[in-house]
Specification:
about 40% helix, 3 strands, 3-stranded mixed β-sheet, alpha+beta, about 90 residues, about 30% strand
Length: about 90
């Protein structure tokens, strides 16, 4: 349940940023997984694909960095590092 909530919140944030940028779609999402967030990159990817289905991030590539530092202040979190989006201008030939 905790993992689903973390990823759901991240996807909502991605959707908000996509709307703010008036982007057609998200090309890449870069995230950082804290050592205590209880998700492997594979587990995160599964959750992300499920939560992002039908959103602007549906087909986004994932770039995942993991931390082994259990003492990091964000060790329990999933952090959005960067977002690469495609706008209507970029999508036109």
């Amino acid at each position: 349940m905790h993992e689903t909530a973390l990823v759901r919140n991240l996807v909502h944030r991605v959707e908000k940023l996509c709307a703010e940028e008036q982007a057609q779609r998200v090309v890449e999402v870069a995230v950082w997984l804290g050592a205590l967030c209880h998700m492997s990159p594979e587990h995160f990817t599964d959750h992300f694909r499920q939560e992002a289905a039908g959103t602007c991030a549906d087909q986004a590539q994932l770039r995942i960095e993991t931390s082994g530092d259990i003492n990091h202040p964000n060790a329990q979190d999933v952090l959005l590092r960067s977002l690469d989006v495609e706008t209507e201008d970029e999508a036109s030939p």
